[in-house]
UniProtKB/TrEMBL annotation:
Lineage: Bacteria, Pseudomonadati, Pseudomonadota, Gammaproteobacteria, Alteromonadales
Protein source organism: Ferrimonas marina
Secreted is among the record's keywords: no
Primary localization class, coarse: membrane
Keyword Membrane: yes
This protein's name: 4-hydroxybenzoate polyprenyltransferase
């Protein structure tokens, strides 16, 4: 498999969002890992993300043949069998790395095995089960939980932030289900995009530094949601990409709201990096 093909299959433009999810899980759990421990954790969770993306293409090969023939499998760049093997290997690698990093405490590795199962369930069912959006949202919640378990334990702050991210991703996934038609069939899920903002508002008096980041997030969401409404300006695919790019921005807002200003700045940098990567690699 060529590197360019692997990068396309892995949708690497969105990979920084996995790293910022990891950062939120670590910081809100009160963890203080070494640089090497954080790199190991981020690598393991990146492997799970990439495995899920590979298997998404493997499961969607027939659908892509009709609707997205430029994707690597229908265009003949790689076989479905090779993509299956690579995807499953990556889903296995993630938990193994976490177990090696914490052999005395397998809780993070066990949670990562559960995350692998949810990823696989989503990939296998998302074209038949319209509410699979909640499975996708659960994947991002579990990234927070795995990261927290790796550095010590799950705190209420991690659970609240993870739930807000679950709602955001579920909303985004509902929208993405019909991006190939440039349509939005359900508008009620759009309300879920507000979940991170609502959570931040409950803490704004304790962390005023979160205000400018929260305003930036609100501006970005409003700008993208406008392009989802009916009319000649509707650009669902473009909006989906921009909302995916905003995952690190959501993380930056959550971090700032909990007083982690420097970590929030790193997440903002990841947001800008994702926007640049999406110019070269497809976001979806």
């Amino acid at each position: 498999m060529r590197w360019s093909t692997a990068l396309t299959l892995g949708r690497v433009a969105n990979l920084p969002s996995v790293w910022t999810n990891t950062l939120v899980g670590v910081m809100l759990a009160g963890g203080d890992p070494t640089a090497m421990e954080f790199v190991l954790l981020a690598t393991a969770l990146s492997a799970l993300y990439l495995g899920g993306m590979f298997l998404n293409d493997a499961c969607d090969a027939r659908w892509d043949l009709l609707h997205r023939p430029e994707r690597p499998i229908p265009s003949g760049q790689v076989s479905a069998q090779e993509v299956w093997r690579t995807g499953l290997a990556l889903l296995t690698l993630g938990p193994v790395l976490l177990w090696l990093g914490r052999p005395g405490d397998p809780s993070a590795a066990i949670a990562a095995l559960g995350l692998s199962g949810v990823i696989l369930a989503y990939d296998l069912t998302h074209k038949q089960f319209r509410h699979s959006a909640w499975l996708m949202g659960s994947c991002r919640l579990m990234v927070y939980l795995v990261a927290a378990l790796f550095v010590g334990g799950i705190t209420p702050a991690v659970l609240w932030a993870g739930t807000a991210m679950l709602c955001y991703i579920a909303s985004l996934t509902y929208v993405a289900q019909t991006e190939h038609l440039n349509q939005v069939h359900r508008y009620w899920p759009l309300l879920l995009f507000a979940a991170p903002v609502v959570l931040v508002l409950t803490r704004i008096d304790q962390a005023p530094m979160a205000i400018p980041v929260a305003l930036l997030l609100c501006f970005w969401l409003f700008r993208q949601l406008r392009t989802l409404l009916p009319g000649p300006h509707r650009q669902v695919a473009s909006s989906v990409g921009a909302l995916l790019a905003a995952i690190p921005l959501v993380d930056a807002t959550l971090l700032a709201a909990h007083g982690h200003v420097m970590a929030g700045a790193l997440a903002l940098l990841a947001f800008l990096t994702t926007l640049q990567l999406q110019r070269r690699f497809a976001a979806t």
